Amino acid sequence: MKNITTPIIPVQPDFVETTKNKTINHKAICLFAATGFFWETDTYWENQKTLYPATSNEIDEHHRLVSSYPYFKWNYTPKKNYSFEEALEDFTELFETIIDEQIGDQQAILPISGGLDSRTQAVALKHLGKKVTAYSYSFSGGYAESDIAKQIAKVCDFQFQEFFIPKGYLWDVIEDLAEINQCYSEFTHPRQMAVLPEFEKMEGIFSLGHWGDVLFDLGAPEHYTEKDLVQLVKKKVIKKGGLALGTALWQDWKLEGDFETYLEERIQRLLNKIDIDHVGAKMRAFKSLFWAPRW
User: Fold this and answer.
1) The model's pTM
2) For residue 289, is pLDDT > 80?
3) In sequence order, which residues have a C-beta less than 8 Å from that of residue 87 and are 6 or more positions away?
4) Hey, is 24 helix, strand or coil?
């Protein structure tokens, strides 16, 4: 027996087997085709699952799940009479403590996009006096994202590198990329692969700020009810042309019912698992529980 404890938002999935019979999970693949990621514990196979985030799991010698229980639960418990200034002070202290613990005395490598996540990290790293190498990238002919990043780095007195992502770069690295993520998420926008050799030359520890745009977002319009969330989730997760592709596969495999109904019922079932009344907070929790870990 061995124990596996999964992070609240895992970096990569832990796989377990349920049976020896290897059969294709057609419904899971339809969802993947429509949204670009696998849902919950789904994989390409019926007999293979992933472990849920934020759980402690006991695995037997055949790599099968014996028991699982959660150690963390997303919740929404805002403080009463909590001023913006108090919230900002508490967040600053917590955020800078985490940055300090993660980086320590090492060189920090900071990707700067100009967005909320990287700007906040830049301020914390500067305030803490950390040694920082920053970088950014822009697509040829696209938005000059590096111009903003360069200004941030200059103000913070960070070393800075600028990269340009050439058109068609993906075709040169697509096999390597498929090997990295085992085709478990849609990967047509991995600009980092274009400059991976440059990353390998860098020394230090990457300071990555993911998911801030979700955790600090309203989640859902204030006038929305819980009934509106199913359609909002659909709008957020379905790729362009994804519904048509998922439906076509569903019909070709002659699966029972219809794909869109299955998708809506699956979303509703997952929303029902989240014990939060506030619709915005519930949407944020949905993304963190059922989107981020597999996407």
Assistant:
1) 0.87
2) yes
3) none
4) strand
